[in-house]
Amino acid sequence: MESLLFSQRIASHKLNVRVRHLLRRCSFLFAGLMVAVWAIALPAEPIAVRHVQRPMRRSMVARSEDGRTIANGEFSQVVQGDEVTMRLTYRFVDGSLDDEETTFTQRGTLRLVRSRHIQKGPFFTKPIDFTVEAATGTATSRTTDKNGNIHLESKHVDLPNDLANGFVGTVLLNVPHDTKPFRVRMLAPVGGGRLVPLVISPQSEQTVYLEGQAIKATVFRIHPELSGIVRVIARLIGLQPKDVSVWVLEGDDPAIAVMVGQLGGYGPVVSSDLVGTSLGK
After folding, report:
1. 167-215: per-residue pLDDT in tens?
2. Three-state SS string across the chain, please?
3. Whose CA, among 85, 147, 154, 233, lies 20 to 30 Å from 278?
4. Are residue 158 and residue 118 in the same domain, yes or no?
């Protein structure tokens, strides 16, 4: 009798262990499912225009992670009707170049027209010359062989309305500082052009000093969501985008003060600042 009761207790214990293990697995699966559902549920639509862009010119500086000045930059913005063309060029002390020119429209919502991004020189792991034409859905990569010959490779991509190549900063100027997390997409120069979702969310508020004046800023986090073949290809060719932090000055005329991340979403991490800007302690 005691032997039977002992066997029943052992069987009951094993059953309880299996049940707890099953419940634990179910909870993990449920949590993973909720994360996936949360990511899918994030809005991914064109951003409404809240602050109309105007012509401007700004001086920028890029610093390495240890604080050394590695490049001087110039930002310009030209407006013709509802069309805005912006260009950000960094010339590095080692002779490298980062040059990005983007045209978009601001008719109610922000819509990409075209974007071209060039990175070349010893600072960058891999040279980039990548153009996106939104109207035709054409992505073009330009490469130069060892003999100096230029090769063009074009690919058609079905582009979404929330594509934000080259003007993610402008997107941040047009969302409330307390916005809920949302998503835009970027066409990355991987495999001739691959769409990468960018999950954007406000993280905190911090004081920024611009020419000695204290201004409140919202810190946004931009998280690239790489998955599947895009992640594999990006790792193989050395283009692995990391999270980016952006400090946006609040007020009636918001502006990007500081960006810490990779220029264009790939390459080494740098701090890209408006000249005369410093972060509060």
Report:
1. 999 999 999 999 999 999 999 887 788 898 999 999 999 999 988 889 9
2. CHHHHHHHHHHHHHHHHHHHHHHHHHHHHHHHHHHHHHHHHCCCCCCECCCCCCCEEEEEEEECCCCCEEEEEEEEEEEECCEEEEEEEEEECCCCEEEEEEEEEEECEEEEEEEEEEEECCCCCCCEEEEEECCCCEEEEEEECCCCCEEEEEEECCCCCCECCCCHHHHHHCCCCCCCCEEEEEEECCCCCEEEEEEEEEEEEEEEEECCEEEEEEEEEEEECCCHHHHHHHHHHCCCCCCEEEEEECCCCCEEEEEEEEHHHCCCEEEEEECCEEECC
3. 85
4. yes
